[in-house]
Amino acid sequence: MKKLLIYSFILSSFLFASQDVLTLDKVKEVAFQATSELNSELKKELKEAKKSGKTKEMTSFCIDESAKLIEKIDKKYGSKVSIKRVSLNNRNEKSKAQENEINILKAFDLIQKSDAYQSKQIVQIVDDNTYKVYSPIEMKSRDCKKCHGLENKVDKDSKKRFSEVYKNNRGYGYKSGEIRGAVVITISK
Fold first, then answer.
1. Which of 42, 47, 73, 154 has its CA 20 to 30 A from that of 56?
2. What pairs with residue 82 in β-bridges?
């Protein structure tokens, strides 16, 4: 993990230290690194919360701590990189997809439903100075389904807690292998 942190720091410093052209390869590399770091940290923290043996602890992490973790990693990459998670069926209003993100999320859904190869990244050129790199969030584990699975099978205590915190909770209904949303890395010159 230490190597991952050092590598990401060096990579982000290299990317933005000079005024050279922001190449697509650099954008994809930084986005891959930031996404990998975020996913690794989230997985580690959820695994730690799961040790209690209660879904309640995992739910509490998602509600109270996951946004702080994203913010921490976001700050580490500096002002030219922004990290967030979005979904068409968001639970948290802060995770609602912006208008220019909706079509990419729909594309992930269409690719998944078509049994086609799902790319690890889709790069969107926002303007001459800004790129958005999307990495799909896939339902892979039973733990994910405890909070995001079919609504009638979601852990009841978690469902109640999510309903108390999020007024427009639409984060249910996913099956294994489905795309639940995306990590979006915005990179600008």
1. 73
2. 186
Unique residue bearing structure tokens 């959820």: 46
* Class of residue 45 by CB neighbours under 10 A (exposed 0-12, middle 13-18, buried 19+): middle
pTM of the shown model: 0.84
Which residues are CB-neighbours of 19 under 8 A, at least 6 positions away? none
pLDDT class for 18, splitting at 50, 70, 90? very low
Alpha helices in 1-23 (DSSP H): 2-17
| Residue 164 structure tokens | 């108390």
Quick one: which H or E segment has residue 186? strand 179-188
- pLDDT one-digit tens code per residue, 132-146: 999 999 988 777 877
The strand ranges marked E within 70-164 are: 81-86, 122-127, 130-138
d(CA 87, CA 178): 12
> Within its chain, how far is the Cα of 27 from the centroid?
17
Q: How many other C-beta atoms are found inside a 10 Å radius of the C-beta of residue 155?
A: 18
Burial degree of 47 (CB within 10 A; 0-12, 13-18, 19+): exposed
Looking at the DSSP bridge assignments, the partners of residue 84 are 184
